[in-house]
Amino acid sequence: MGILEVKGVNKRFGGLQALGDVNLDIAEKSVHAIIGPNGAGKSTLLNVLVGKLIPDTGSVTFQGQSVLGRTPFQINQLGISRVFQTPEIFTDLSVLENMLIPCFAKRDGSFRLHAVESIESEKSIIEKAEAMLEEVNMAAKRDMIAGSLSRGDKRRLEMAMCLVQEPKLLLLDEPTAGMARADTNNTIDLLKQIHASRDITMVIIEHDMHVVFSLAQRITVLAQGTPLVEDIPENIKGHPKVKEAYLGE
Ligand code: ADP
Ligand code: MG
């Protein structure tokens, strides 16, 4: 049994079947990529996993617990974090202040920033946030206003905000979208290092095949809302069904 199981998930938007009978089994501690042409239903699937969308039918189970019927915040508290396609950070706050918000949110299940019992625990939270910034190479930028960061740094900050919560499952929606090749390669290296250094499962939605083949241990190809093939990367390359799905892209 995997850490995340999706069974018979269907989602319609009016007359459009965005997801049709999706079944997925994500192995614990793996890096699993979900690829597919534009409009295949990748973001819709991710929104179902984090509770932003409720499927019409089917089940989603994380570590044996049902995800459906929980709010996005409750799902986050279960140990699922998500890096968005467009970074969701607080642009008017400093880099360090951005880091403190998820630290406190994780702490007591609320967003009360005054919930620190002692100076000692506040100090340890700041140290934790700073160590995480160090890990994503952002320590020197801790006092910068987040809105003024480069696109790559905004993504690194968002990733650090997710990781500081110590999620068991990290969902990444096109983590390198809009990045130049050098920054993409830096992100690949960072994700490899993050995966190697902790007990974490990663699900990556990605359009860039270079990223997918550099990171994933398993790949699911989604086409028109339905998984077409699932296999190891070597078997996905050149798969006739995959080529067919991408024709006309
Ligand atoms: P992908 O991320 O693979 O590009 P999406 O999951 O964003 O695909 O979209 C799948 C399909 O569902 C597309 O045809 C898209 O236009 C449609 N869709 C997505 N979200 C909505 C929505 N909120 N309302 C109506 N249609 C939607
Ligand atoms: Mg998308």
TrEMBL record:
The keyword Nucleotide-binding applies. One of its GO terms (molecular function) is ATP binding. PROSITE patterns: ABC_TRANSPORTER_2. CDD domains: ABC_Mj1267_LivG_branched. Coiled coil: none annotated. Keywords: ATP-binding, Nucleotide-binding, Transport. InterPro entries: AAA+_ATPase (IPR003593), ABC_AA/LPS_Transport (IPR051120), ABC_transporter-like_ATP-bd (IPR003439), P-loop_NTPase (IPR027417). Residues 4-249 form the ABC transporter domain. PANTHER family: AMINO ACID ABC TRANSPORTER ATP-BINDING PROTEIN, CONSERVED COMPONENT OF ABC TRANSPORTER FOR NATURAL AMINO ACIDS-RELATED. This is ATP-binding cassette domain-containing protein. The lineage of its organism: Bacteria, Pseudomonadati, Pseudomonadota, Alphaproteobacteria, Hyphomicrobiales.
